[in-house]
Amino acid sequence: MKGSLRQSMTWLHTWSSITAGWILFAIFFTGTLAFFRAEITHWMQPELHVSTPSENSAEVGYQYLLNKAPDAKEWSISLPTERSETVSVSWRYGNERGREQLFAQRSQLDASTGEDLAPRDTAGGNFLYRFHFELYAMPRWLGETLVGIVSMMMLIGIVSGVIMHRKIFADFFMFRPKKKLLSWIDGHVLASVLALPFHLMITFSGLLLLGGTLLPWNGNGGGHGGPPEGGAPQERGGRPAEVVNAEPIAPHINHSALLAPIMAKASAHWGVPVDRITIKNPGKENTTFTVSGANRVELSAGRGGNSGLVFNASGERISEDPASTAPNTTQAVYNYMDMLHQARFADSVTRWLLFFAGILGTLMVGTGSILWVEKRAKKQLGLKGFELVRGTNIGAIAGLMVATGAYFWSNRLIPADMAMRSDWEVRVFFIAWLACVIAGLLRRDRMGWLWQTAAAAALFSLLPVLDVVTSPVGVPDALRMVFDVACVLIGILCWYAVVKLKNGGKPKRRSAAANRKPDADNMKPVRPRGRTKTEQPA
Amino acid sequence: MNTGNVSPATAITLRVVIAVAGGYAASTAISLLFAAMNEMSDRQEVAFIRMVFFLVYTVYIIWIFAINDLQKVLVTGLATNAVAWALVWSGVFS
Known about the structure:
Helix content of chain A is 54%, strand content 7%. Classes of the chains: A alpha+beta (538), B mainly alpha (94).
């Protein structure tokens, strides 16, 4: 490009980012929320809130399966954990029952009483999770390709953004509030640099995860979530059963008394509690119990990093399913990136840290898009392209938050037994978003921002109230607490923006230094001491 | 910028095409070359190529935009692809 390296990088940074900005904001925001996917889904299924974990959750699951599917080939019981309050059971038959029975069926039970809770039909946190890498209502390859392209633009934006700052460290420590454009610049730099390693990691690893779609020539492709060897993505509980010969049904033996000692042995062996029990040939002489827990010792092992223990019908340990390990450095590094992106290892503190880093990333993208408009406001006001960006910014940033808030509200307000209610929740999301985009294009000024930000602030900050009022259990459990606290935090951020927008209209007295026009093209902050050499763009 | 008699819009479009399409092609060849230099299982190769590709692609795009002269951009785009693909097809590293 014309001019110095920093000027070329500024051009690249600006245009790579503003073109991808709106869709990136949506990806970053929904992806950040997806760190709490399990918590969101739990919140969105109030029927599950009555469940409280108990000592005998495993027996509860066992008794349910004994009544429901005594002659299944395999049972599986997932116990309550830090991120689930219910017992989730699944069972599958052999192929003697025809094709439809090959796949597992599942139920979610009250962890104390064993009652089948039959939660409402909702996509829950999965909608936000899937949206953030394959968008919606388009073929998967297309959604993944689009997300891949903007992720690449994001990576270019980050790298060029670092290069364009000669003094990135000094710029990071500079914050000049109440100076309009300079505040936007400093806020953008702050959000970007504070979590820079996270931004780089999440973007690069996101590209790796989409590598199957973006590099179709490489191997046989894997699509998202697939292991790098190109296997199909694992559907939970969706493994087809191995072909078995139908055996005469033997008298059923109740092994439930074995569960407690088996779990005690396993958790003593690992030092962590058991969170899943798989029972093959339940109730038979040759039954086996495979127990697993969160006993991963290394991230680089990837998804198969948990080891399991196998017990026989007498409760004796017969073998160990060892944890897989990465066969070589390449795959170790790859697995590491994969696990980091999906936070599969994270305890609650780490998960919150990732959430905050994600919020900073969202702010980085949002402030960047606003900065583009702020810089051009004086010169380009009224021009078609400028007004389009200016208006769409509102719907893409504030409007997306309104849509997400509306999605959560619709979850509690749409009747639990309505037909296709899950689809309607998603429709509410898109209708709200579309309405905001149109409203933003019609009202492109500060008031447009104010209305939509206020709507998002109200929706998010009142979600905990909605939760308490519409859940069968008033006092939130730990998982709902996470959701409610996160919503309050997002609400506070929005209220902060509302207050700023409300005060922003009145002209304030400014110091002479603040009135000096910043160099519009290379984002170089104006320094009071004037030590920097001015480099005018050609 | 030595754009000759090319308009600024065409110059930018050309540069973007070379960075994006030329970069994709060159990064493909370069990551295939790196993979060919190392003895690897199929699974390892898939993971390896994904990681190398996105690193090379990023650097390549930044590089193309850092060059001052449009002619140099054209030459760089063609030359890197020609050399990298020639090496891939010659099979010297495999």
